[in-house]
Amino acid sequence: MDGHHGGSGRHTTGGVSLARESSRDVAHHSVLSGIVTTTLFAVGAASVVAMATVATVGLDALRSMVEIHPTPERGRVSGHASERKADGDERWFHLTCRHVSVVRRPGTRLHAVMLDPDMADPPAHRYVICCPDELRTGRQAAATAHRFARMGANVLVPQSRGDGGVQSRYRGMGLRESGDVIAWIAEVLVHDPQAHVVLHGISVGAVTAMMACRQARLLPRGVVSGIIVESGFANAYDQLIFSIRRGRRLPAVPARASACLANALCRRRAGYDLRAVDCLKALRGSRIPTLFITAGRDHVVDPRDADRLFAACTADIKERLFVADAIHGECQEADPRTYWTAVRDFLSRCLW
């Protein structure tokens, strides 16, 4: 009897102990589940916020890069002599220019202005096409055109897409514009079959000129005598990633995610893939003499692109000019003497 009661007492005590342990386990599991749920919720919320941030950054970058916005006139050139020179270029431009147009395809008409040589006895058959870039002010474009006109060139200045030229909400980042340039060259050849054309471009205009290299192979040999490019980037998709990383200070992975989303949106809205804007691919196999001009204080374009572009170019004549004190797209303004001496020497070597 004593043994039985003792056993029964120990059994009962053990059951209570197990019940208490079970209650603690349930409580621990409840607390743990709560912590896990809260953590997962926090992680999920953070992921949603991160994804929203990535999408917003990509959309903002795409808008600034691809959408066309009216560009305000930038500050006036400093110094009285420079002011008078710039005003003189603009007066010459407006007094000399004549408006021309050409139909590229049904429903698409391209517009440009043509300027005659500004010298007494200009050489025949010389043309320069100044590829458009929205960042250039009218004053800067006039100054560039006047310089080439004083070298004896007929200067064609196509209007930008959405700027009285081809009406579009989106710029082609040089991809579509390069086709426009080829159409203009074909139009020049209709009026002057012996024409020799030089392409000049700055920033996106430089990309347009480089992208035109591939299509220029469809033209008669030697028609495009040279290309002068300043502050151009190597690839539009890589440039978008660089802009996101620099502008938003994002690490590589979220920056690439933002660029991927932005590119998908670009394909849907603008109708092209940013990866297709590949100047490295366009320059490979090119035999067109090319002058690459780099701004020493350019923080807009990846600084590695200048070396990559020069290495990719397979032309027998390819040259570089580095303007140390220039910012993006303003090498002419930073050191005009060096700039135009290099351009003139380059053109003489192109037998232009």
UniProtKB/TrEMBL annotation:
Residue span of region Disordered: 1-22
SUPFAM superfamilies: alpha/beta-Hydrolases
Key words, A-Z: Hydrolase
GO molecular function: hydrolase activity
InterPro entries documented for this protein: AB_hydrolase_fold, DNA-binding_regulatory
The protein, known as: Alpha/beta hydrolase
Organism of this sequence: Bifidobacterium mongoliense DSM 21395
